[in-house]
Specification:
heterodimer; A: 314 residues; alpha/beta; Rossmann fold; 2 domains; seven-stranded parallel β-sheet; five-stranded parallel β-sheet; 9 helices; B: 257 residues; nine-stranded mixed β-sheet; two-stranded antiparallel ribbon; globular
């Protein structure tokens, strides 16, 4: 039997959809008995949301005033104490999980398996390496005290609601450090859907030419109810903020529809979109590598095509 | 001595598209161009800039691996590092040297170097572009029991503290940490400098010391076993449409509009 602890990601009010995806991954571990750990200042609402995910038997709340912000150095010791007796600890492969889980793994003296995209047995997992150019099947040796893993959220559909888990609170005896202070977070206000969970995403590349150029994409995105992403080149050029980057070192997404506009399709970008159901590419270069993976390709000037699409969809 | 320790990993160059060996036993990297992991290059650039601003006195680079990784350490010295440490892992039992050492083992090795060098700051890449693990930085910070600032896009040092701006999913987060600390780099922290020919000549005279992995008394036994390497499933090649109207029609046909 596997006793799996899933670390919940949240903003203090609601769970991040990555949590339901980690639960979905946990359910594929043979014989999994799933507990979700919620670290928060006040965990009541988050715990009942987590407890409603199908497959979750138990929710463990870890409440502390120090948990107001997701600081890895503060959360890791609490979770390390709470993880005693579990066989697996899973967290999402988001910036939250990538920051926290290796710190937790080291405290547990455990090896970590990053970006799990498939579970083959309680110890054997599939994961992408080399920007998704290679799929590695890796096995954790019996000598590991516990298995820590991050879950490639784009590989899993969220666990459905309708469960009814028991909720317990834990007070792990962990000494919390004071060497790290949260100063603030700045984020662009947007009414558009969240890039990581949107059913439709439109992304722009360097060919958009400027922050101004991206406005044609925003208008089309609003017609489609789509989120807007970007290639690394567009973020590096300063056209859009970092949180819009899609790819190996940005966000990995799996929308139903992905429209790549003026993106050549470097392998580092393609790894972020390979789970998209349908990929549309609009690019003036007919040889652009993006056309190799596109389900529908359109060669032409984006500054003519995108406004025309917007008109056709009105 | 206010010292910065920078980790350097030798990886397959960013522009190389790797292939899986026919028998699925590994990735074919014979004769392939190798480079410093791009995030580590950014880490070194940042360390050099901190030193040039007068906020540090010495930049030490370290790499764990077989003899070949000395090439990347020489490049790091040519970029401006003061000295280099090569942790020779060829006797570790891991068949391919550093590439087969797990992140937790590398973190233990770095901790041993930290105990010797007593750095003010350790800067590492947020991930290596070969295995994409993204683990070593936070693991070192945990073992060292010090703060971490991962995915940094800005680092400011003042009064024994570092202010780190981090690229997170929500946007930009700012943390303040007490030093010493571990920082991992994101893409937009800086643009690394080019190495000039005279610097390559000068680098040959800079110290590059060998440290035997065995001498560090680090548990380097592997606990992750690579079972199989496979190419990813390929997407079917799609269709071309000639204009926006055809595109809309094609999307409607697929039920996407």
């Amino acid at each position: 039997m596997a006793r799996v602890l899933v670390v919940a990601e949240h903003d203090g009010k609601t769970l991040n959809p990555s949590t339901a995806k980690c639960v979905a991954c946990a359910r594929t571990i043979p014989g999994a008995e799933i507990t979700v750990a919620v670290c928060a200042v006040d965990a009541a609402r988050l715990a009942s949301e987590a407890g409603g995910l199908q497959g979750v038997q138990r929710v463990l709340t870890l409440e502390d005033p120090a948990n107001a912000h997701p600081l890895a150095a503060v959360l890791a010791p609490q979770l390390a104490a709470a993880a005693a007796g579990y066989s697996h600890v899973l967290g999402p492969s988001t910036t939250f999980g990538k920051d926290l889980m290796p710190r937790l793994a080291a405290l547990l003296d455990a090896p970590q398996v990053s970006d799990v995209m498939g579970v083959e047995s309680t110890r054997r997992f599939r994961r992408p390496i080399y920007a998704g150019n290679v799929i590695l099947t890796v096995e954790v040796e019996e000598s590991a005290p516990i298995i820590v893993a991050t879950v490639r959220t784009a590989s899993y559909a969220p666990a459905p609601t309708g469960g009814a888990a028991t909720i317990e609170s834990a007070k792990p005896a962990a000494k919390l450090p004071t060497h790290t202070t949260f100063v603030g977070v700045s984020q662009a206000k947007s009414d558009r859907p969240d890039l990581q969970t949107a059913r439709r995403v439109i992304s722009g590349g360097r060919a958009l030419g400027s922050a101004e150029g991206f406005k044609v994409l925003y208008r089309l995105a609003d017609k489609l109810g789509a989120a807007v992403g970007a290639s690394r080149a567009a973020v590096d050029a300063g056209y859009v903020p970092n949180e819009m980057q899609v790819g190996q070192t940005g966000k990995i997404i799996a929308p139903e529809l992905y429209v790549a506009v003026g993106i050549s399709g470097a392998i580092q970008h393609l790894t972020g979109i390979k789970d998209a159901r349908t990929i549309v590419a609009i690019n003036k270069d007919p040889e652009a590598p993006i056309f190799e993976v596109a389900d529908i390709g359109l060669v032409g000037d984006l500054f003519e095509i995108v406004p025309e699409l917007e008109k056709l969809l009105s | 001595m206010r010292r910065i320790l920078v980790g350097i990993k030798r990886v397959v160059d960013y522009n190389v598209r790797v292939r899986v060996k026919a028998d699925g036993s590994g990735v074919a990297i014979d004769g392939v161009k190798m480079s410093i992991n791009p995030f580590d290059e950014i880490a070194l650039e940042e360390a050099l800039r901190i030193k040039e601003r007068g906020a540090a006195d010495e930049v030490v680079v370290a790499s764990v691996g077989t003899a070949e990784c000395q090439q990347q350490l020489r490049t790091a010295l040519a970029m401006g590092a003061d000295r280099a440490l090569w942790v020779d892992s060829s006797a570790s039992g891991a068949p391919g040297g550093a590439a087969d050492l797990e992140p937790l083992v590398v973190a233990r090795v770095l901790l041993a170097l930290v105990r010797r060098e007593q750095p003010l700051l350790v800067i590492l890449g947020k991930q290596a572009i070969d295995e994409d693990n993204s683990q070593t930085g936070p693991m070192l910070a945990a073992l060292w029991d010090r703060p971490q600032g991962t995915f940094a896009s800005k680092i400011e040092l003042a009064d024994g503290r570092a202010k780190v701006v981090r690229e997170v999913d929500a946007g930009l987060e700012t943390l303040e940490v007490e030093l010493p600390a571990v920082v991992t780099t994101d893409l937009r922290l800086n643009v690394p400098r080019y190495v000039k020919l005279p610097d390559i000549m000068k680098a040959k005279k800079k110290p590059l010391d060998t440290v035997a992995l065995a001498g560090l008394e680090v548990d380097s036994r592997p606990r992750l076993k690579a079972m199989r390497f496979e190419p990813p499933p390929q997407r079917q090649k799609g269709v071309r449409v000639k204009d926006a109207a055809e595109l809309v029609a094609a999307l409607k046909q697929k039920g996407l509009l």
